[in-house]
Amino acid sequence: MTKTCPGLTIASHLIMCVCASAWAGDWPTHLQNNHRSAYTVEALKPPLAQQWRIAADQSARPAWSEYPAPQDLWQNLYDNKPRLTSDRAFHVVVGEGRLYYGSSSNDKVVCRSIEDGRVLWTHITGGPIRFAPTLYQDRVYIGSDDGTLYCLNARTGQEVWTHQPEFACEKMMIYNRLCSVCPVRTSVLIDQGIAYWAAGVFSEEQTGLQRYLMACRARDGHVLWTVTPPKPLHGYPLATRDQLFMPAGKSTPLAFNKSNGALIGDFNTQTRQGGSYAILSHDNKLLFGPHYSESGSYLEQYDAGTRTEEGLGWGPGNHLVVTPSACFYASDTALSKFDWIQKKRLWSVPSLYPDALILAGDLLFAGGDSQVAARDTVTGSEIWKASVSGRVQDLAVANHCLFVSTSQGHIYCFQSSEK
Description:
There is one protein chain. The chain is mainly beta. Strand 23 and strand 24 form a beta hairpin. The chain is built from 1 helix and 34 strands. It has one domain: YVTN repeat-like/Quinoprotein amine dehydrogenase (Methylamine Dehydrogenase, Chain H, 7 Propeller). The two termini are 24 Å apart. It has a 9-stranded mixed beta sheet, with no helix packed on it.
């Protein structure tokens, strides 16, 4: 039996997640870290029970429809996967018992308690929010289509500092939403106290509208450098010790020097490849996509240092998780495990969960249409699943809980009975 509150469904016998002094690992940025590896050592023990569900008044409002994705008639490539999928749901981050996300439908940053899903605070921006926030030292960093980067107090939601270039104050209609002529279309990456992000979606040569990539001190917003990238940047940034990798939406990522913003180079390919989904492996391999081929959309591997294509050759796929010893690869119809060193397939099982994939301890969590499931990493066997409303677009494990975000604007919290 459940009771319904505005925007929230709570199990009648709610198990409190954890006390404030015993939080497990956090999930401070999209896909857990600056490599977007989608992996945490925190383990959950199935079966999991739904603790609460947020039923949003409106689902996410993506900036790009791309349904279906454009067909590449020049190369006779059809049934392509969309390349801009970062705002199909409300992507969450979690820290110290609080869940944070931004909304592309009501333009708010929202903070909720993970114990029962109740709203702790909201902060209204001037435009849609397309990417997950980033948590760093009790602050929340997030960009908006209003052209502003916000640094908020994680406890109260009050502004600590904001940054908006003067030229970004001008507004225009973008897909029936009032936005800045220079919207923030990346998340904020923070490394060693420095925040990096990019804004702008137009070609300055053709429109006169500017775009930029910026680095500033996370604590006070002091600008360290600003550069004009050769093409618009769109996606979740990634970083190594010396380099910053910026997805460029439908185009290929760019590599920049973290210390001064100097362009290092492009990940050029022989065909029209690209995609805003990207991860960095522990051994400095950049994998991104979807690439297009006659056999379907797939992810490809590049050496992050030389930016040369190395060829993964695993066939069509959507998401992956890479550990030092193994890789898990999700396609439309199967979930596979590979030996990362030898690139040898260890197992492959049929799967209905192509839309999201993360690794928590020794369990894989995968999401699909109206379902989320857990699989054993040794055998690939399914050991738990649950029904949800909508297509699963984002997963996170933190503070003893599994969080599931769907295309219907819902966010679910599942928890094991054993911590």
